[in-house]
Design goal:
The protein contains 21 helices and 19 strands. By secondary structure, it is α/β, with parallel strands linked by helices. The protein folds into two domains: 269 residues, Rossmann fold; 328 residues, Ribokinase (UDP-N-acetylmuramoyl-L-alanine:D-glutamate ligase, 3-Layer(aba) Sandwich). β2, α4 and β3 form a beta-alpha-beta unit. α3 packs across α4, α15 crosses α17 and α19 crosses α21. The longest helix is centred in the C-terminal third of the chain and has 22 residues. The structure holds ligand NAX and potassium ion (K). Homotetramer. GO terms for molecular function: ADP-dependent NAD(P)H-hydrate dehydratase activity; ATP binding; kinase activity; metal ion binding; NAD(P)HX epimerase activity.
Length: 627
């Protein structure tokens, strides 16, 4: 689909996240030209705040309390002007200043509209413009009083820091946010972030609703880290463009629903640092069967998964691949695992032959402590994927090193001719136990799928000592680092999965996939993901063979597998499909930040149940019923 400029901008607005330096470059010419961005921002915040207030169960129009937490910069200015608009509408508005100064114009507007200011700083500097008419409207307060004010509010605007944040919150801001998080009102609903992440309606929370202005204060705006205290938001209203923290884990879990105010920034002039995955990308990786098809032309997946120790992984990966729209699955493994695969999936072919994708390692031990034939086969295959092995003939790999029985499939030559090339032409996914066999440098056609524990072990081989917890705190940083070390396409698993690798031009592209549900944290889920990955790799290869469609990057294919996997889990758990447009919206006068159809919270699942949902997710992608 060719997008015109307007569509490209609208797409970028909801998907692409830009670092602070780019945001500053975007806004600078507009500010120079006198465009009143702060006024526009404030009007949007006030409008969204009214919507949030109206959606709260104890709806008491015109009596509702709004507290604005204000820092000294322009983020605080946005909050103060929004507070002024709300006070003008008759709401009970007060601001709490965490610094020694405030945005002059914003404070004057708030006080003029009848709002009050409480400040926590002994040497608060009252602006000259506010002297005189404001007797009793500027009050020195204590942190305990401020927490009390916040707890009794209906809506809190978090306008402490935005894109000017430097490191973790400090001083009074840190103290106040910490005290709010430990207050009774917040402690009584500690699960609300998890519920919101499940796209379950959480507006019934007894604590005040939190609207973050531009970004929740205290998070790493450019890298999605959470270096210290911060206030989790129910809604984040952001200006001009998405900031990386809004889509990168772990910060993205504390942003709530996201509303983007369009300032007509020239987004096409800069490269986003990360993009939010959606169904449109996944849809491109699914190949519609054609009347000329044979089982070979629809894609053949080769699996070296499962082991004597973990035979179940063979079944899960093989069945997931077979259910994700391919013509055939070849399974290579020890007798017990092979028998189990055949019992569950009589369609599986156990003889070696040509394939269009390889999945290796799921359910394979990760050390050579005990001899394991799977590790030996995988090591032979992976040798062909080192940078200096390009040009190795695939035929050798199939028949000599992998297949015990030789290549005796009479129909194997039906595989399209492009796959009679070198071994490295065939995309390969290295999962679980095979990660310890990964060559030092590979091509971007090799996907690696570690979770944080596996990544910690892999990084050690490249001289980086970092724990799984440290990786979970900064997953984007470490996913990029291992991508740079290995040259591969990296899929770092998590509640929000990060995929980093070269695009079809060789430029590094990052996608974040947020479709998973926390119910997915269950044994065997990774084996199912590997199977889906194999199926997508094989069918996109088949697509490239059968028509001249634009090549799809390995990054997009890997992210699509995670997207489909997440939605299959949601379906299995009884939840409705994940939808980007529900999570991230463009601001307009009619913006509705509420869930249109509240989802159920879902139910526990086991990994094998995902497999049954895969065909329906594929069907939904074909029929455009997910977005
Ligand atoms: N991007 C845009 O086009 C627009 C930006 N606007 C607003 O302006 C904001 C940026 O304003 P600024 O550049 O003034 O920066 P901020 O207001 O985001 O942050 C600067 C203030 O925060 C304090 N601060 C920084 N790090 C801190 C920490 N770790 N702990 C405690 N205090 C800390 C600084 O001392 C300073 O007072 C945006 O986030 C947005 O809200 C809007 O007015 C509209 C237009
Ligand atoms: K903020």
């Amino acid at each position: 689909m060719d997008l015109n400029n307007k569509d490209t901008h609208a797409y970028a607005l909801l998907h692409n996240a830009y670092v602070v330096n780019h945001i500053r470059e975007f806004e600078e010419p507009l500010l120079r030209a006198g465009v009143p961005l702060m006024t526009q921002a404030a009007a949007a915040i006030a409008h969204v705040a009214c919507g949030v207030l109206a959606s709260r169960p104890e709806n008491r129009p015109r009596n509702q309390r709004i507290v604005v937490l204000c820092g000294s910069g322009n983020n605080g200015g946005d909050g103060l002007y929004a507070g002024a608009i709300l006070a003008d509408k008759g709401f009970d508005v007060c601001a709490i200043a965490v610094g020694a100064t405030l945005h002059d114009g914003g404070l004057a507007a708030l006080l003029q509209a009848g709002g009050k200011l409480f400040h926590l700083c002994d040497f608060f500097d009252t602006p000259d413009s506010c002297d005189g008419s404001i007797e009793g409207h500027i009050v020195k307060s204590t942190p305990a009083e401020a927490v009390e004010l916040v707890s009794r509010a209906d809506v809190v605007l978090d306008a402490i820091t935005g894109i000017g944040a430097q490191g973790p919150l400090r001083g009074v801001a840190k103290e106040l946010v910490n005290a709010i998080n430990h207050s009774e009102a917040w402690q009584s609903c500690t699960q609300s972030t998890d519920r919101a992440h499940m796209q379950c309606d959480c507006t019934e929370s007894p604590r005040p609703s939190v609207i973050a202005v531009d970004a929740p204060s205290g998070i790493g705006v450019d890298d999605g880290s959470m270096p210290g205290d911060m206030l989790a938001a129910d809604v984040t209203i952001t200006f001009g463009a998405l900031k990386p923290c809004l889509i990168l884990p772990p910060a993205c879990f504390s942003c709530g629903r996201i509303i983007v105010v369009d300032f007509d920034f020239p987004l096409h002039t800069a490269s986003p640092v990360a993009r939010a995955m959606d169904a449109d990308i996944a849809r491109k990786t699914i190949r519609l069967p054609q009347h000329t098809d044979s089982k070979y032309s629809r894609g053949v997946v080769g699996l070296i998964t499962g082991s004597a120790q973990y035979p179940g992984a063979a079944v899960l990966s093989a069945e997931a691949a077979a259910r994700s729209n391919v013509g055939m699955v070849r399974y290579l493994g020890p007798d017990r695992a092979s028998n189990m695969v055949l019992a569950q999936l009589p369609e599986a072919v156990l003889s070696p032959g040509r394939v269009q994708s390889w999945i290796v390692g799921s359910g394979v031990p990760d050390t050579d402590d005990a001899y394991d034939t799977q590790r030996e086969h995988i090591a032979s295959l992976l040798k062909r994927y080192t940078d200096d092995a390009a040009g190795t003939d695939l035929h050798d790999v199939d028949t000599v090193e992998i297949g015990a029985a030789g290549n005796n499939d009479p129909e194997r030559n039906d595989i399209p001719s492009s796959h009679h090339g070198s071994a490295t032409d065939i995309p390969l996914c290295v999962d679980a136990g095979a990660l310890s066999l990964l060559p030092q440098r590979v091509s971007g056609r090799v996907i690696i799928t570690p979770h944080s524990g596996e990544l910690s072990r892999l990084l050690k081989r490249y001289g980086e000592t970092v724990t799984a917890q440290e990786i979970n705190a900064e997953p984007y940083r470490w996913a990029r680092r291992i991508q740079q070390f290995t040259g591969s396409t990296v899929l770092l698993k998590g509640a929000c999965t990060i995929v980093v690798g070269p695009d079809t031009n060789g430029d590094i592209r990052t996608l974040t996939v947020d479709s998973a549900t926390s119910w997915l944290a269950t044994a065997g889920a990774g084996d199912v993901l590997a199977g889906v990955m194999g199926a997508l790799l094989a069918q996109t290869e088949a697509m490239t063979d059968s028509n001249s469609s634009t090549p799809i990057s390995t990054v997009d294919i890997a992210a699509s597998a995670a997207f489909i996997h997440g939605n299959a889990a949601r379906a299995a758990a009884g939840m409705r499909p994940w939808s980007l447009t529900e999570h991230i919206r463009r601001y307009d006068k009619n913006v509705n930040f509420q869930v249109t159809q509240p989802s159920t919270i879902g139910q526990p699942i086991v990994a094998s149940e995902l497999i049954g949902s895969l065909p329906q997710v594929v069907e939904a992608l074909f029929s455009d019923s997910v977005s």
